[in-house]
Amino acid sequence: MQDIRFDDIDALNARASEEFGAFGEEVEITQDMINRFADLTGDQQWIHVDVERAKRESPFGQPIAHGFLTLSLLPRLRTPSDYRLVGFGNATNYGADKLRFISPVPAGSKVHARTRLVAAEAKPKGTQITQEIAVHVVGSDRPALIYTMLVLYHPPFK
Length: 158
Hints:
Shape: elongated
CATH topology: Thiol Ester Dehydrase, Chain A
Number of domains: 1
Strand content: 35-45%
Strand order of the largest sheet: 2-5-6-7-4
Order of helices and strands: EHEHHHHEEEEE
Number of strands: 7
Structural class: alpha+beta
């Protein structure tokens, strides 16, 4: 594993790629997880929480996870990397350039993610890292979710 300083823009951009890395850990999406997410967010749409109705009326034949539930799992779906950012004080989620929910995530399925570094850019308050993350249902070539994430890495506070 190579350590790269958070503010070494050239070294980071040398890691940028059109190719995604390896898949990370698999996480099972249970109906209980979906129900708890629905309770937390207030999104009780039947396609997520009414198992019998989803079996009868959903085009997917069963309940599916909320897109934002899948998105919220990104910290658990961390992907392996051959480098580690070092030297920063903290990192701030800076937002997204793109978010697409492409394919359903059925209850009972497992998901995993893979990532690619898009770019690193010097900003007045630190280094902005842009990564593209693809979350797939295990066994599916088509992603369930594509997310272009922006993270701002700040220097240590003195």
